[in-house]
Amino acid sequence: xxxxxxxxxxxxxxxxxxxxxxxxxxxxxxxxxxxxxxxxxxxxxxxxxxxxxxxxxxxxxxxxxxxxxxxxxxxxxxxxxxxxxxxxxxxxxxxxxxxxxxxxxxxxxxxxxxxxxxxxxxxxxxxxxxxxxxxxxxxxxxxxxxxxxxxxxxxxxxxxxxxxxxxxxxxxxxxxxxxxxxxxxxxxxxxxxxxxxxxxxxxxxxxxxxxxxxxxxxxxxxxxxxxxxxxxxxxxxxxxxxxxxxxxxxxxxxxxxxxxxxxxxxxxxxxxxxxxxxxxxxxxxxxxxxxxxxxxxxxxxxxxxxxxxxxxxxxxxxxxxxxxxxxxxxxxxxxxxxxxxxxxxxxxxxxxxxxxxx
Length: 358
Hints:
By secondary structure, the protein is α/β, with parallel strands linked by helices. The chain folds into two domains: 4-122, NAD(P)-binding Rossmann-like Domain (Rossmann fold, 3-Layer(aba) Sandwich), CATH 3.40.50.720; 129-295 and 329-347, 2-Layer Sandwich (Dihydrodipicolinate Reductase, domain 2). Helix content is 30%, strand content 23%. It contains nine helices and 16 strands. The chain has helices at 15-22, 40-50, 58-62, 79-88, 103-115, 130-140, 175-192, 304-315, 323-342; strands at residues 4-9, 30-36, 69-72, 92-95, 120-122, 147-155, 195-203, 208-210, 220-222, 228-235, 240-246, 257-261, 264-268, 278-282, 289-291, 346-347. Strands 15-14-13-12-6-11-10-7-16 form a nine-stranded mixed beta sheet. The protein is globular, with a radius of gyration of 20 Å.
């Protein structure tokens, strides 16, 4: 098989960096052949900007003969409908995070994809960047010994202060855990392996939010999801993790991710980026050591995951940002919410394997 052809569904805020990279740094490896959006003017503008045909209807794009893979970058609660239509049509699909809003939705997409012998991939692909891939090598090479614990923090005061259309962040499939948690959990699974048990507490601190960004400045939006979540993660290899995600914090001095080992500590860079910095402090050392990035893609390389998926299809090998891992992360996130609601642990029912290093 030759170069895989990509049809893009969704021309919103995140589409710019995908299209820039897929038609730029990855242009020799994939080809974008069509784009659509519910707001036709947005698709038309994106099409004109990048020289890509814009299609009026989602179903028409999915069924085009010059589209092999659907890049599904719609809003979270629309991921399921688009992904399901794609795999039913015999097309591979790569979803922005989360894979779907609900477990049952994702299970159906994965089941039909398997029956139709097509692949499912899922964002984020930041774990394939130079920063986290460098961390993966350091861990695999034993720089901090055996990992025993990890912490992850994603805390801010929400997106209504800067995003042009932030309402969906507070709807089904949104909230800090489902919006940003996939970056942190995917990084942790890539570094430490799958999670077998979780517990947690989740709360909605404010019933409404007021948008202060343009063009919706002053609009009051209802909050439907928890906005401060604290979770405990038990990894299959024995490590214990802690994760806090929040849209209720103005300021903090917390790290993004740290991993604590039997012989030292690894400080992992922002998992919403592809680069560094990476630091290690071993138990006999007095100072942190900055580690040069040992892998490729330190810049914003969104599109790397779907590009790897396209090449894996052509080469007949597993792709790294795969549906199995994206579903595992979805299951873990729901499990934290479930544990909070029930006051018990949630035994994670899904499993995945650590992707091969890039």
